[in-house]
Amino acid sequence: MAYNVWVLAKLPNRKLNWKTKVEIMDESLIEKQNGNFANTVLPAVRSNLVTHSDYKNGAGLYDLAMFDPPFDIWKDINYKPDAKTYCCFTNFQNRHHVEKMFGVPKFEMIWFFKDGRWVSHNMPRLTHEHIMIYGELRYDAYTGEYNADRTPMKKGKGCIGRDKDLGDRTYTPRERKMLNSVIEVPRNVGKELGVWGKPIDLIKPIMEWLTCKGESVWDGFAGSGTFGVVAKDLELEYDGYEINESSCQKANVRIQSQTKELSLFGSM
Predict the structure, then answer these.
(1) How many of the other CB atoms lie within 10 Å of CB of 197?
(2) I want to staple 233 with a disulfide (CB 3.0 to 4.6 A). Which of 20, 90, 170, 262 is the partner?
């Protein structure tokens, strides 16, 4: 029997309540109060866009939560959504704030890049950021396209060290490229996304590793919408939040205009 009733619905993790008409097949799933149907929790619905709001929002359990706030506000962050895995971006000066909130990371990566400034006329300034990962690591750390041709290839006879002649050797190419713990990708210097927007070539391999098609992503500091663009490309459900209204609007335009598959190294 189907129950087509008005209920007081609640979104998980939100204070918002409203009346809505739903059809429910199993009466046991509905909480009754004084003989009336009430307080039924509806499944979380992802917007797949960026909402103009602060980061203290979310609906239900996410498979991945991406934290990329301005680094100088890490000390003030006091909310995290329910998620299986958390990926946090920070620098050396503020990583202790991340550890205070999340603890010791299960895995850590380094993003190494030239920051656009120069130590001298011919010496660019090199710097890095920390990518700290917490929670479940449910998938192998592979990224990129699958290698269709895995024909064994000839390998050199020598190696690092004293062995100069190890004889004829071959190796079989991997099915996919392994994701390294140190990633060297240029920053968005001089581009319209701003220098603080993370490049696609950095974000896509990480999200590709930590998620699977159809899973959900929370992004509390959406900025230019890079995480949303990658989520759409990887066919993930996405909830983004951005406190700056202008940035929120631009991010949504960017996400909605993303129609072709993102290719690494040379993407937008």
Answers:
(1) 19
(2) 262
Closest of 65, 64, 69 to residue 89, by C-alpha: 69
CB 179 within 8 A of CB 210: no
Mean pLDDT by 10 residues, the chain (268 residues): 42 41 45 48 73 92 96 96 96 96 96 78 83 94 78 74 71 80 80 67 94 96 94 95 94 86 52
Q: How far is CA 247 from CA 158, 166, 252, in A?
A: 54, 58, 9
DSSP result, 218-255? EES--TT-HHHHHHHHTT-EEEEEES-HHHHHHHHHHH
Domains assigned to the chain: 3-37 (no CATH), 50-141+179-256 (3.40.50.150)
Name the pairing type of β-strands 169-171 and 177-178. Answer: unpaired
pTM beyond 0.90: the answer is no
245-256 helix and 226-233 helix, angle to the nearest 10 degrees: 20
Q: Is the distance from CB of 11 to CB of 43 less than 8 angstroms?
A: no
Name the residue among 157, 125, 131 with its Cα closest to residue 71. 131
Q: Residue type at 40?
A: T
